[in-house]
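Lab channel / #folding
Pinned by the channel admin:
"Please post every new chain as: sequence first, then the structure tokens as a reply. Keep commentary short and put observations after the output so the thread stays searchable."

First post following the new format, from NK:
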Amino acid sequence: MRVDSFVYTIEDEDGDSDSAIVTITVTGSNAPPEYVGPPEVPVEPGSPLPNPPVLDPDNDDVTIEIITGELPDGVELIDGKFVGIPIEEGEFEITIRVCDDASPPLCTLTTVSYVIEGPRGDDASSRRPRRLVTPMPQARPEV
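Reply from TO:
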């Protein structure tokens, strides 16, 4: 934030004058929220997906919604958090919109791909936990 002040004086044709102080305050502009997903997050079998990592540079509250795509069966997005346990494997691509609560709100669209893999092989020693692979998304401001 920057503040500056100046004094101005105005005079009419009769020579009467008056002065006043003008103060101008400039605050920073609102920045859109960002999805800051890591490239890979391990998910143990029977564990929930990690919540979408979102940061707002201005510390505004944010809302998250799915615009396109679907989450794996067993998982929902409720109040910006993943709820439930994935019960299917595969690749899932979703586009999320993240908006701050400023006036007017600023939003960012981000496409994220999830690849969920389950255990492999028949014996317990060859089983590995499910993984969630999240490539770093290309965030773009919503137009």
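NK: Residues 120-138 have pLDDT under 50 and may be disordered.
TO: also worth noting, The longest strand covers residues 90-100.
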